[in-house]
Write a structure and sequence with these properties.
five-stranded mixed β-sheet; 663 residues; mainly beta; 3% helix; 3 helices
Length: 663
């Protein structure tokens, strides 16, 4: 473009169209448009028509496009090789210039030339046509019957022209199989160039249907189908419909389940109620087939209970999924049929007859207004006294009569009723009226100090006055405390003494004892007192001296003097053990001296404690004494022997030299 002029050299058809000129400066812009029409041009072909190769199989139709551009419209001429193509029943030149060949054969192979010509020139294209043998396909097996969980291989074989490549495609029910999303059930195996296998593993019901194999070549595409039938457990029956309800039955119907190619052998009717642990099989009368529906009667249901039902079908392969549950229904009311169980007596207060039983579950109450009838009479009399208990959850009834002596035997039975009427009574049992709480206090209560933290409390009791106590309660408190703040400790059975532990040393305590049973507590005994022992001496025996002679050692130490708040020393305990042993032997002595036997070779560990009525005092420091056969060793050599070991020959030699001076 020069000075706003656009020049187009060698104009051809592709230059035709609308052109727009834009002029602008800092004040704005203007446009101008012009259309270029090509009124005359020599023929030309689009690049994609210049040369092509067409591959077909025998019997197919071949269409070779020839659409030259030019003005005036070019005239079309077709040649095969050097010969002009003549039209006939199979060969025709279409109005747009394309050449069509029907029912292609080997004789139609070759190079075809299309020439377009007008007064301004001419142009041509060349197309090569190759005719191949048609591809055939074999898919086996054609029909297969399997059971859920089995596996199968479908083989697809292509018979095709050796010069053509083939590609295999698999479909199920007309849809391509996605091998990545089928959970590992499908695998395509290409073992040979001309065949492919479809492996189906662990087959499911959903995998039944028509499988297609399509073979694609550059010349043609062929396909075939095989049918796969899968036998499996039945499908779910149709929703259960409740048609008739009585006190203990319900008539139900449902549409049959799909048999999944294996005849259904039975239906199982299941029920669920608020009292059952999940779904449970219910007893039915034989099924009745009525047209397209099946029905059965559930029997032995409990009255006045809510139920929902479902059905499960079974065939020789297995049991299928259950149907959708029916609507919730409630059976009709009825007179109770279940009597209370475990009727027995319970402990109570004096002049009371306490009757207990196991409540009847709501599942067996059979209707609204459920309650209990408690009947009782003194043993050996006629005529029952009856009391109504209106609570369905009641498990006890208490009859009080001041004239009833303790432990009077009664015949007792408990019945049931609801709004529909009275139900059965339980078996008659004999129970006794309450004996009442203990009426007398324990006697001859004594408290004796045992140690710095223990006091023994003992008592006596007369069975005739206490009845049958379950045990005794001991109350105890410090001298400066109120009895209301007393701590308590209980015994069970016929014990007549107890040692209280964990008490404070050198402290005065007060004690009472009273009997108890299920009815309550009896009166407390008279108060008794005792003081815990003083603490043992805190000072340890000191200045231990020892002398060994043969298989024993003589010990001596300074006597221990207790503090004012400590127990008096009544003697001493010498603890000794062989090194490496956990248990100690004990020697008791009243003097600050003792003789300790050392029967076996080795090192002995010895310590001393002062002993008092408050217990053992603080231990002395330990001494280590070696035991040798014969000879005399004093405490002067004890340190030396502590460090003498067989691992040091020098130390052992020095020890032997020192010991030799005493032998």
């Amino acid at each position: 473009m020069v000075n706003g002029v656009l020049v187009i050299h060698n104009v051809n058809q592709s230059d035709a169209g609308m052109y727009q000129c834009l002029a602008e400066n800092k004040y704005g812009a203007i446009y101008a448009s012009a259309e270029l029409k090509i009124l005359a041009s020599a023929p030309t072909f689009a690049l994609n028509q210049l040369k092509k190769t067409i591959i077909v199989t025998k019997g197919q139709e071949v269409v070779i496009e020839c659409k030259p551009q030019g003005s005036p419209k070019p005239t079309i001429f077709w040649k095969k090789g050097d010969k002009t193509v003549r039209e006939n029943k199979r060969i025709a030149i279409l109005p747009d210039g394309s050449l069509r060949v029907l029912n292609a054969s080997k004789s139609d192979e070759g190079k075809y030339v299309c020439q377009g010509e007008n007064i301004f020139g001419s142009a041509e294209i060349i197309a090569s046509v190759s005719v191949k043998e048609p591809t055939r396909i074999e898919l086996t097996p054609k029909r297969t019957e399997l059971t859920v969980g089995e596996s199968v291989v479908l083989n697809c074989k292509a018979i095709h022209d050796a010069s053509l490549d083939v590609t295999f495609y698999w479909t199920l029910k007309g849809q391509p199989i996605d091998f990545e999303k089928e959970g590992g059930h499908f695998e395509s195996i290409r073992a040979q160039a001309s065949s492919a296998d479809l492996m189906i593993r662990n087959i499911l019901l959903m995998h039944a249907g028509r499988y297609g194999c399509r073979v694609q070549t550059t010349a043609d595409s062929v396909s075939d189908e095989a049918e796969l039938l899968v036998r499996g457990p039945p499908g779910p029956p149709g929703i259960v419909i409740v048609e008739e309800i009585t006190e203990s039955t319900a008539t139900l119907s449902w549409s049959p389940a799909a048999d999944n190619h294996s005849p259904i052998s039975s239906y199982n009717l299941q029920a669920r109620s608020p009292f059952s642990l999940g779904w449970q099989t219910v007893k039915t009368v034989p099924e009745i087939i009525t047209g397209d529906m099946e029905s059965a009667m559930a029997v032995d249901l409990n009255p006045w209970v809510e139920y929902e039902f479902r059905v499960v079908a079974t065939n020789p392969i297995g049991t299928g999924d259950p149907s959708t549950p029916s609507r919730m229904i409630r059976t009709n009311e009825a007179v109770p049929k279940t009597a209370p169980t475990n009727v027995s007596g319970r402990s109570g207060r004096r002049h009371e007859l306490v009757i207990a039983w196991e409540p009847v579950s709501e599942e067996f109450q059979n209707g609204e207004g459920f309650g209990y009838i408690v009947a009782f009479r003194p043993n050996g009399t006629r005529g029952w006294k009856e009391k109504m208990v209106t609570s369905s959850e009641a498990s006890k009834f208490i009859y009080r009569d001041e004239s009833v002596p303790p432990l009077t035997p009664f015949e007792v039975k408990v019945g049931v009723y609801n709004n529909k009427g009275d139900g059965p009574f339980s078996q008659i049992v004999v129970i006794c009226s309450a004996e009442g709480e203990p009426s007398a206090a324990p006697t001859d209560v004594k408290a004796t100090s045992v140690s710095v933290s223990e006091i023994l409390v003992a008592w006596k009791y007369i069975k005739e006055s206490l009845g049958r106590p379950q045990g005794f309660e001991i109350g105890y408190w410090k001298d400066m405390e109120q009895e209301d703040a007393a701590e308590t400790l209980k015994t069970r059975g016929n014990e007549s003494s107890i040692i209280l532990t964990g008490l404070e040393g050198n402290t005065l305590y007060h004690f009472t004892v009273r009997a108890y049973n299920a009815a309550g507590y009896g009166p407390p005994s008279s108060e008794v007192s005792a003081t815990t022992k003083k603490s043992p001496p805190s000072q340890a025996p000191s200045n231990l001296r020892w002398e060994q002679q043969g298989s024993q050692v003589s010990l001596g130490w300074e006597p221990v003097t207790p503090l004012a708040n400590e127990s008096e020393v009544v003697g001493y305990k010498v603890f000794y053990r062989q090194e490496g042993h956990s248990s100690s032997e004990v020697i008791e002595t009243q003097k600050p001296q003792a003789v300790v036997p050392l029967p076996d070779p080795g090192v002995y560990i010895i310590e001393v404690r002062a002993h008092s009525e408050g217990g053992d005092g603080t231990a002395s420091s330990q001494i280590r004494v070696p035991s040798y056969s014969g000879g005399k060793i004093t405490s002067a050599q004890s340190t030396l022997h502590t460090f003498c070991t067989p691992s040091s020959s020098v130390t052992l030699f020095l020890a032997l030299m020192i010991l030799s001076t005493y032998w």
